[in-house]
Specification:
The longest helix has 20 residues. The protein is about 60% helix and about 5% strand. It contains nine helices and two strands; from the N terminus they run αααααββαααα. Helix 5 packs antiparallel against helix 8 and helix 7 runs antiparallel to helix 8.
Length: about 220
Amino acid sequence: MFENIQNWRLLRGSHNYPGPDGGTCIGEAAIVAAGFVYRAVHGHGDCPPCFSPVVASYAIRLNDAMSDDLRQHLLMPFVTRFAGTADTPEREIERARYITIQTAKRIMPNGLRLEGAETHLLQCEQIDQVNAAPITAARFAIWAAEVAKNTAEAADAAYVAADAVADYAAAFDHVVAGRAIFSIAMAILDEAIKLGNQAQPVELARVVSRMEVIKEKAHECA
């Protein structure tokens, strides 16, 4: 049954209506899978209230950074997991702090070092110019998550962390390196989801049915 979901194509960017093969970003696909009325997703603010803004923000930015093949293989399994993840502001801030710190520790170059688990201070060693941008973004993401006072600020921090991942992956002209980097990011996304609320999984057959209805409507409108 999951192979039927794979027939839905995840694409970069927002879409006012899906293409005949699905053709949406991860946020739009998750909205359809959850049974909501289709809408274009430009950012976490366009997602339903039951979606964690932090989780959605991180995933949406990663969606736009991945190649078509990686997006389909690594991100598609999350399409049924967004609904029901929204949590308290405190929990969303915790998720943002987790995402930013883990992104820095596990994805960024060895130039990133964290000092003090409680204060989340960051120390940089010598870095080359290619890595300067993602390291700077990762540092800012950690600081932004640390000072976040609400879910919107926490979501922004998660977006910056994903932006750092995107920049770092883009520095490698190598498929294997890109897959390794984004695979770690997907593991971090999975762990962040598990830190807070999670809904009961939607029956896969129902998800496939909802997605097929939208695809049929797209065919009619084409």
